[in-house]
Amino acid sequence: MADAKVLEAQKWVNSTYKAADGYKKCPEDGKIGWSTMYALIMGLQKELGISPVVANFGDGTVSKVAALGELKLGWPENKNIVKIIRYGLFCKGYPGGYADTGYYDQDIYFAVKKMQSDMGLSQDGTLHPKVFKALLNMDAYVLTAGGSEEVRSIQQWLNGRYWTKKTVDIGPADGHYSRNVQQNLMKALQLEIGIAEADATGNFGAGTQAGIKSKAVVSEGSSGIFVQLFSAACVFNQPIVTVDSSGNNVETNTVFKKEFDSNLATFVTIFQRFSAISADGRGNYATWAQLLVSMGDPDRPVTASDTAYTITASRAKKMYSDGYRYVGRYLNEASAGGGSKMLEEGELATIFDSGLRVFPIFQDNGRSLDEYSYGNGYAHAQKAHDQAVHFGFNRGTIIYFAVDYDATDADMPEIVNYFRGVTHALGSRGKRYVHGVYGSRHVCAEITKETYARYSFVSGMSWGFSGNLGYSLPANWSFNQIKEYKVTNGTDIFWLDRDAHRIGSDPAQNSVNRPSSPADEFINYIKSLYDLAISYGKGNPNQLVMEYLRSDSYNDTPWRALIGKADGGFVSYVNDRNLSIWPEFKDPFTGQHLGIEHLMATANGQFVKPNPSGDISLGDVAGWGGDLMTLYGEWRRDHESYASGATYINEKMGKIGVASTFGFTDLAEDADGYLIAQAVRGGKNIVEAVRDHYQGNGGLTRFRNYVYQRFGGTESEAAAQAKKILKETPASTDGAILVGGRISLIQKFGGVPTLMPHLLPPGQLDAWCNAFGKNLKQHANTETLRRAQYQANQRRLLGSK
After folding, report:
1. 479 backbone dihedrals φ, ψ, rounded to 5°
2. 270 alpha carbon, distance to own chain's centre
3. Buried (b) or exposed (e) across 32-43, using 16+ Cβ within 10 A?
4. Residue 663: CB partners within 8 Å, gap ≥ 6?
């Protein structure tokens, strides 16, 4: 929204200084931004005799301002400088007075005092050179949206205590941890450990590290300035998000304090465990380092690594003896510049034989913003999928897609689009693999938030990246790259990155080409889980089995909102008894590999959120409804090539070997999950339901039974239900969640913005929904023929025995 005084400032500064050498005009739109502040800085430089003027309030400008003497009440020497001050105050949100008196009047004096108070400085009303510099930037000194009062109190304290020091600028006081705040904290620490003012640069160098080790180690019972700085660093890195034994997300926080008490020790212990460093509850060097810089202590013991070098038997043996248990390797040749090597044939067997696990990485250069687009993400994920299949990576493997440069906030929209392309491509290939993200802390957090990346591989050793300064470790971090070093292995030399690994995150892979389990083995597996659910002694054992099998891939925040969280206690109970989640098995009726996690997420949804007669529910979104939403998003993404939604459904829905998020296996998993849930709701336990479905004739009639039980057996009812799921809001309290999920899923696969179904031209939504109903009915009809063929084959097999 335009502001009249800002517009007045823009017009005045452009008109007054347009002829100054180096001056760049700012937009005259009444909206405050850096261009306006730069224009005011350049106008000030012109008044100070600096030429050419530049868009930077540097040391030279500070010195020239200091030479003016004290800018305080009554100062009359330069009316234009007073005007710049007055306009700067308006742009900053402070009333600088509406009367153009031409001197530093009481309106300016009181406004400067208020700004100093907000900054955390003593309020003398004098515009000191550094205060002038702070006036003409975009930092806020009041709490802004999403900010923390606790963080703001520390920002004010840092400003008030250190702003007069040579290398320290006045930082924001807006309640947000940022690069500038991190730098001021680092400089404060350097000054307190005895580094000279001129050398307190904010870099985490040898002198700073030595000073922390000798002077700044704190623990329970300590007090004073180092506890204050240490607790400030803790606050800046909070909250720590962990998962308790019941599967609940738990946030741990602390406060700024002078005394190192038991509460702070508890926070530190949790932070240390979360960060995968030795947990003793003390503010030792390793913990200071982890709080201050993204790589932490680069020489601390770690168990993971990544490299662009081929892992030979000799290298694998050396790595294992050095304590490594994980190694990241590239799926493609163009990963890391000249001489880099992707996985070679037979290399995985060598790695596994040595006792190491592998996590795959995909990086096609990835060094600048122009490489990140939806199209590139889609193409890269298809290539990554094909390479992973070529090497035999098991279903459910996390592939980390790389952002290998210092991406800024302004870059995020295109990077998010790239990862939308990644998710769509992996979905179109049957969701065999799951996307993770490699990049700075900021990149990892944003991509996780916007595209639900399963895990983050943090480029922590790039500690100078702006995306690593002022950001805490993302809650879903799995690997943190902290140091590159040269390994000498006899006469062999190769380079390795040291990576921290968080226990309980991505376990990586220790095998490939895991065979799909026949139905009888799958049934026995379900029985083992059911028996454990009975012995667990809490909750519904059928539901516990469903929750366990979806807990890894379908238990993030959106899924928890949709159908509730998986029981974390039971997940741990099963894992502790040497069982794990099977990703897939081979359907005995079609020969297709069905994804167990998606199947049981669908069953779980229908079990806990069944649809009322003739209506829709959140359980539908967990199955067919969610798949229909993603397919709709894909159609809107591709609508320039597919004007007809009906044609898109005919070509993409329920098909084998077609790029789609609603392919044949998705449809089969939706049908089976629904039917298994209905059987359990009807009185069978989950073992009986699964056995009857896959050893009886359930798989021969899945689509017919599905159409009749869920959609009344008619195309028209299926079309009506599709229209409801895409357009309407249920009257129940779940309505808002369903609508939010609809928007999220459609935009995830269609992009932002995407035309929502209710905004389609008349008739187009009906055509889409009618095509859905017809497609379902066709699957039921085709199934009758397949059933006859299957039964004939079975009779021949029995007759040959």
Report:
1. -130, 145
2. 21
3. beeebbbbbbbb
4. 428, 430, 652, 653, 654, 655, 656
How many CB atoms are located within 10 Å of the residue 636 CB? 23
Sorted by sequence, the CB contacts under 8 Å of residue 421 that are 6+ apart come out as 373, 374, 375, 376, 377, 378, 379, 380, 381
Among 137, 140, 148, smallest CA distance to 44 is for: 137
**CA dist., res. 286 & res. 762, Å (int):** 63
- In one letter, which amino acid is 50? I
**The pair of three-digit structure tokens given for residue 195, joined into one six-digit string:** 């580094």
3-state helix, strand, coil in the chain (%, to 5): 50, 10, 40
**Identity at 54, one-letter amino acid code:** V
- Cα torsion at 313, 314, 319, 320 (round to 10°)? 60
**Consecutive H or E run containing 95:** none
Backbone φ and ψ for 729, nearest 5 degrees, come out as -115, 115
- CA 122 to chain CA centroid, Å, is 40
d(CA 332, CA 391): 11
Cα–Cα distance measured from residue 707 to residue 342, given in angstroms and rounded to the nearest whole number: 47
- Amino acid at position 718, single letter: A
Tell me whether the omega of the peptide bond preceding residue 753 falls within 30 degrees of 0, making it cis: yes
Q: How far apart are the first and last CA of the chain?
A: 82
Q: Are 754 and 634 in contact (CB under 8 A)?
A: no
Q: Give the per-residue pLDDT at 337.
A: 47
CA distances from 547 to 541, 618, 627 (A): 10, 16, 20
Q: State which H helix or E strand residue 703 sits in.
A: helix 702-711
Can you tell me the distance from the alpha carbon of 285 to that of 189, in angstroms, rounded to the nearest whole number? 13
Query: Closest Cα partner for 431 from 553, 542, 529?
Result: 553
Instruction: State mean pLDDT over 702-709.
Output: 94
The DSSP call for residue 509 is B
Give the phi and the psi of residue 416 in degrees, each rounded to 5.
-60, -40
What is the band of 788 on the pLDDT scale with cuts at 50, 70, 90?
low
Residue type for 488, please?
A: T
Q: Locate the DSSP E strands across 27-150.
A: none
Q: Is the distance from CB of 421 to CB of 450 less than 8 angstroms?
A: no
HEC profile of 319-334: HHHCCCCEEEEECCCC
Please state whether the predicted TM-score (pTM) of the whole model is above 0.85. Answer: no
**Nearest CA-CA partner of 715 in 786, 621, 649, 641:** 649
**3-state SS class at 517:** strand
Give residue-wise pLDDT tens across range 503-562. Answer: 989 999 999 998 776 788 899 999 999 999 999 999 999 999 999 999 999 998 889 999
What is the Cα–Cα distance from 127 to 134, expressed in whole angstroms? 10
Q: What is the pLDDT of residues 630-664, one digit of tens each?
A: 999 999 999 888 989 999 999 999 998 888 899 99
DSSP-assigned letters across all residues of 380-443: HHHHHHHHHHHHTPPTT-EEEEE--S---GGGHHHHHHHHHHHHHHHHHTTS-SEEEEEE-HHH
Give, in order, the Cα–Cα distances in Å from 43 to each of 26, 54, 61, 633. 12, 10, 11, 50
Q: Which of 385, 442, 387 minimizes the C-alpha distance to 416? A: 442
> What CA–CA distance (Å, rounded) separates 73 from 689?
84
Give me the helices (H) in 513-623, please.
519-536, 541-550, 557-563, 568-575, 596-608, 618-621
- Beta 434-439 vs 304-306: how paired, if at all? unpaired
Cβ atoms within 10 Å, residue 308: 21
Q: How does DSSP classify residue 215?
A: I
The DSSP bridge pattern shows strands 326-330 and 304-306 to be parallel
159 within 8 A of 119, measured Cβ to Cβ? yes
